[in-house]
Amino acid sequence: MPAHPLGLEGTFPLLFLIWLLPLFGAVMIWAFGPRFKSFAGPLGATMVGVAFLATLAEWHDATAISGGLAGAHQTLFTWLPGFTFGLLFDRLTLTWTLIITGVGFLIHVYSIGYLAGDKAFARFFAYLNFFIFAMLTLVLSDNFVGLLVGWGLVGLASYFLIGFWFYKPSAVAAARKAFVINVLGDVGILFAIVVIVAHVGSISYGDTFLQIPAYTPHDLFIVCVALFIGCAAKSAQVPLHTWLPDAMEGPTPVSALIHAATMVTAGVYLIARCAPLWTASADARELVGAIGALTAIAGAVLGLAQWDIKRILAYSTMSQIGYMIMGVGVGAFDSGVLHFLTHAFFKAQLFLGAGIIIHHLGDEQDVRLMGGLRKTLPFAFVAMLTGVLAICGVPGFSGFFSKDAILSATLAHGHPWLYAIGVLTAGITAYYMFRLLFVVFFGTYRGKVDPSDLGIRHPELAGTASASGHHPAADDAHHVHPPAWLMSGPVAILIVPTVLIGWLAYGGDASPWKTFWEPVFPKVVETSAGFALPELAGTVLVFGVVLIGFALAYLRYGTPAVLAQSVPRLRTETVRMPTVLVNEYYFDAAIDALFVRPAQLLGRFFGTIVDPLALDGVVHEAAHTAAWLGHLFRSFQTGIVRVYALSIALGAACFAIYYVVIGVGR
Amino acid sequence: MESYIALSAVMFFLGVVGVIARRNPLIVLMSIELMFNAANLALVTFSKLWANNTGHIFAFLVITVAAAEAAIGLAIVVVAFRKQHYVDVDEASTLKG
Amino acid sequence: MIAFWLLSFALIATAVFTITAQKPVYSVVGLLGNFVILAILYLTLNAEFLAVIQIVVYSGAILILFLFVIALLSSGVKPFDIGPDRAPRIGIPAAVFALIGLCIVVFSVVRAQIAGAPNAPQGVTGTADSFGSVGDFGVALFTKNLLPFEVTALLLMVAVIGVVLLAGDEKPAPPRRKPKARDLEREPIVKPVETVAPR
Fold it and tell me: ipTM value of the model?
């Protein structure tokens, strides 16, 4: 048991059930996948579903508070003194676990329908279950090393799932990119662990947080920055965000689960978990808040330049996580967590709805080739509409509460610039999300239009059916249309929290949400006084900006006149898109030039010069020298007796000379 | 006295040159006999110098041993001759590496 | 003194003749002259017995042996020294070495102070027990140096056996034991090696 566990010690068999059932499912499906075939789907879904029920059963233990300790703690084993591994199930973990298992379960069910007929159906569910297990390891750990183990495993699962269709080179490249950037984050966290162990001698959260006064401000900042590098890599913050748009190469349920609801929020979880650390370091908070705001607006601006429906959603994810990071960065931990909660629902909703569209259109992802789907897919329209309304923060929907909470907290903690950026981003968000809605669902269907008329120069790169690589004809030879409820059911279920979950935070400081988090997070005390905008004024301001964004989107994409001219207008927009936005601020180019090319050159240098000349050269020269010496000594062995006689004579002469000149010892 | 030793040395080195420079084994053996005799001369000289006839004894035994060695050497030459009907020291080169 | 220089000159001349003669018989003759002159030198060194032994054993027995072997080898028509000279011009380094070695030895000998015994008998001859005489030599050989004498005898025996073995008859040795009847029925485990066919 660690010296200062954060929770009440005890034995909780249900915790093991929650944690290990997905692993069991993954192992079973890995081992018996070919035999299970389509049974793998329900099996995987059941594992996660049972885990979800177990989580609900553990609600009481998680929310228990007694004597300064909150939650449930189960010690697993002690590896070294100070290195105790255990499971911690407190309110923060409970929130994340509910989302992981709950939304995870819905996405498992959805995937049974989405991937029906795919050759590698079972493998997908093995990976998905493995991901759930890894994510649970991350949030259930009571120590930094367990967190890091979960962190790495989640990155691994992401690699598996992004590169699921591994016959697509673009998918493989995207998976590799994601993995490498994630490993960079792992290094940051490892560095932080080293500093923590050097200071505290223990890896558990409780011991670390207790010893915070023993850190110098400099060391504390270092630890926070190192941890934040991990968060930035995992949560796709600038400048480590480049992997997230490419990660859309994976199947849509993957994007929904991993790159919207759970994995990318691991950074937010880490910051919230280490709240005492951030509370103690104002510099770290500044940094985190600034990067969160920067990411939010950068993602939003890029979102309005995308034509692939999943990339639009990817950038919106990046932007919204920027919001969350900004929230926890300024010290409003519960607001950040609330936004995580609402975002999980509405982003999963948006992705699953997009998945219905993509599936229906035969893997078409380019919005320019969509249009008028309001009539063909009314259910998807309703789903995406609720999602869009939530993400824009329209009052009454869930996103409204969480965004407002973050923005007012930003102001209250004395960051007017971050507030301004946040409000502006809200407007841009509204603009590009409604752009998405108008282009996809309104007007007439453009699927039969020649791509070049729409300005698509490289159909194979633009996310069209041929590009996604999922060839329905090839592996759906026995395609049986799954029952529609498999895909629409989860979406329908998700509509409810998308709309309503925000109401938990209704009522300001007396809301159920605030009282839930009251005993968990320390209060951040700012040195400078914040601004206090009257609550209504703030809400009106934000809503006004959102309306402006909606209006702009409507005028540009939604009016009947525009919709009639959609083909030439889209073409003009495609052609006139600024290259900075098309190249995503040249981040990829910069990383390529700064890191990838030098590494390749270095590798080539070592491969063509150092290896053959120096390394092989050393070996060859050694062999050469041995052979040369051999030849040299062999030349003495002439076999001619007379030469031997001469050498004997010479040898004897040397002895004689020695004794004559130097003399025998007298 | 020193001149006797010098003489012995000259004879010895002549013998060495003979061993190395000639290809006929018989001549080689004879050069070896020359070396033996050079050593004998030195022995006898020193024996006279120190008035100790151990040198004489030693020289006597050297003569005996030289005889034995010459006999064996000649036997080897004869056997080699039987094989190839000529004798050449350079032919015994199977130690060539 | 003059005798010494004359004798030494003759010694060296005969030695050079020995090693440079083209025919082995000439070498033997040169060697014979060398041994005789050496015997005379022994006489000047009061080693009478040894001088005689030198002539009797060395020139009388060993050189005869050489002559016999030359006769044996010359019975064929093929000359000596056939085959390529595998170490041509090896005489040059040998001569150089010999010259240098000789210089060193002579130099060191000349520089060294060879101290002799104070009362070395010089030139006393004729009596039975004088230094270098037969009696003196015999006493020393059979009393103080008996063991080397006996060992040398053994060594001579070994030499004789060796010569007989090496250059003896060419008939193959008879089989050690006759194979028994039951051995003949089985396949021999070790096949007998083919012996040299008699000429």
Answer: 0.90
